[in-house]
Amino acid sequence: MAPATFTHYPSAQTTFQPPLIANENAFLGDIATSEPLDPTAPISAGFYRLEKGTPLVYEYTYHEMKIIVDGEFKISDETGKKVHAKKGDVFYFEKGSKITFTTETFGLGFYVGQRKKDTA
To answer: Above pLDDT 70, what percent of the chain?
Structure first.
């Protein structure tokens, strides 16, 4: 059996263009997944971009970690918790949480979710 290795995605933050997923301003796309190697407990990773416009309300059906890599978001949940997220901030979204994302400019996040590829 060959040793395990890594995969490199050069300049992914600046070159990967996630597809439109909602409204006129919410873009999300997976760039990597462990699904072929671990189909029972896969993780998938990619980028989420929100432009100024319609807020995105998203209910998580899986656990996710996200780091803000550019821009800013206003993030809130159903409990009333609100954060002005900026570059370098890290979030954990629990399975079952309902989160509202909005921005006055744009925001870009890199995420890793406990789910199959392209099922967000």
So the answer is: 100
